[in-house]
Structures are given as C-alpha cells and as structure tokens.
Amino acid sequence: MQNTSDILIFWAVVMSRFFIPFFIPKYPLPGVIASLLLDAVDQTIFQTFTGLPLEGYQGYDKALDIYYLAITYLSTLRNWSNDFAFRLSRFLFYYRLAGVAIFELTELREMLLIFPNAFEYFFIFYEAVRMKWNPELLTREKLLISTVLIWVFVKLPQEYWIHIAKMDTTDWIGENPLNSLFLVGWAAVLTGMAWWLLRDLPSMKPGFSITAHHAEFKFDSPLASHIKDNYTSERFFDDFIHHELIEKIVLISLLSIIFAQILPVRANNVQIAIGVSLLIAINTELSQWLARRGTQWKSIIQEFIVMSIVNFSLVLLFDFLLARYQGSINLLNTLFFVLLLTLNITLYDRYRRVYIWNHDPVTDFIGSEKPVELKTE
C-alpha cells in the first residue's frame, strides 16, 4: 500500500515539473536547465525515496518533456532578437515534435534517433551566449555550425544511448565509477568546440544577464488598436487562413496527438486533431473579434482565465451533444487536456503578437511608432 510520504514526494516532483517551466520565458537559461535536470533525476528520486511502481510514469514523463519544450519554444517568440536563430530553433522544435508524434503513433524507437531533440541544446547555447554577448553577433554561419555540432556530437549519441541502446547513465557510472571520466572528457571536447566557435566575438560584457530582455508590447495601450495585423484587420474574415492560424493548428494538433497517448479521451487521433483544430479556429477568431472591438488583455493570466472558461464551456457543450447520440468522452481527462491546450494557445497568442510587431517588416503602424519598450522581465 502506498504511504503518505510516497504520495507527497510523487506530487512534489510532478508539480515541480509542471510549474518550473513557467519561469523559462522570464529566466530562460535557469528555467530550462532546471527543467532538464529535474527530467533527468525524477525517476531516480522515485526509486530512491519511494516504493512507488513506475510502470505508468513513462508516458507522463514524455508528456511533461514535450510540455516544457513547448513553453521553451514559445519563449523564443517573446525574447529572441536574432531572427535567423529564431527561425532555426522553430525548425528544430517542430522537427522533434513531428518525430515524437510519429513515435507515439508507430512505437518505432528509431524515430527518436532520426528526429533528435537538437532544439533544447540549441536554446541553451543561444541563451548562454546571450548572458555574456549580444546575440545579434551570432551570424548565420555560427548558428548553423552550432546546430550541426549539437546534432552530431551531442544529440545523436544521447538519443542512441537512451532510446536505442536503452542505457541508463546513472547505472552505467554505478557499475564502474571510472566511466565518469569519459563524460568529463566529452564535456571538455564540447567546451573546446564552443570556444572555437565563439573565439572571435568581442569582449564579454560584465556580469551575467539571466533575466530575458525583450521588447514588450503594451497590450492595454490605446495605440494597440492602431496596429494592422491579423488581429485588427478591418473585415472579420480577412486572412482567416493565415500563417498564424496554420502554425497554431500544427503546434496544438501535434501536442494533442502526443498527449492523447497518455491521457485517453475516448477519441482517435484524427478526431482529436479535427476537434482541436476547430477549438483553435474558434479561439483565434474570438481573440481577433475581441481585439477589433478594442478589448486588450492587461495580463496573460486574465486572458488565460477568460479563454479557459470559453473552452471549458465548449467541452461541456460537446459532452452534452455526444450523450444525445450515444457518444461519450472522459470528461475529467478532457477538461485537463483542454487546460493544457489553452495554456499553450494563450502563450502562443501573446508571444506571437510580440514577435510580429518586432520582426515583421510589413507590419503597418498607423500614425505612430511601434508602441514597444525594452523590458528585462
């Protein structure tokens, strides 16, 4: 029988893995490293300090991995000033996300080797550079070389070790402590590669810039209504199928397929993708309609609460209609499922607008300069 301490430890770890990623947008490097380390030691904590069976935890572990990676990607919309670095990271993120979705559908572990998670370490590289240099100094050549080095010398060996060879580093070192010297040597090689790549950059700035620097749009400013984008176009159905909506559908649909493998909602993957796409379309057009009517969210929490109420209402309506046609869903799981999706949709909506207003050269600002200011938060 499970005792109270086991349950407390379990939920402390799970809640930590859920809430720590919230710090990534504001404190990118500490936040992602903390998430990465907790992911690495969570099962060791369970094995050492609890007697809980871990057979069913693997699925949740993978879902929480994708969850914090999604928040990490969304933070690049908000924070990254080097546009080529952002576009490269976006490719790496979606490449990995597609690979995980294929793996979940086929259970072919080779997919995780073919689609390695280079995004995570590329993010760490960029943020580590930003702490001491202006990231605008990273040229396309340096960014591409860093991606290749991470892909070949970090992620391919790691993905093979974990998913193909199915080796555990802790057990490997436990069998022979001298094995740790190999890891130290490998870390020294990677450090040397990083030095070679950055050796010609200007002198480092003093101190460490841990907090993210980003150009933040004043969402409650009267000037917000002067911006012509997909949220404020003059006609309601202008650009209904636009880049933002397409990316959001791809992002949330892939997340939904992955999450649905461990959070059953009594629907197949096609039904989930269709339902989520409709949910995203409704959310997007509702956000645009409110923006055109002058509604500006003062905080991301306010927007999240309002959109959660809307989405929960849609789920309850869907559940009611299904019951009339001999259908059903797992309501509790579905509500939690939609809560996660709403969080990602809200972050995407918020940070995508900041990205557009700071990187899109065709964005039209009517009668005013860009109403943004540099923040360190």
From TrEMBL:
Superkingdom of origin: Archaea
Keywords: Membrane, Transmembrane, Transmembrane helix
Membrane-spanning parts: 7-24, 111-129, 141-158, 178-198, 303-323, 329-348
Name of this chain's protein: Uncharacterized protein
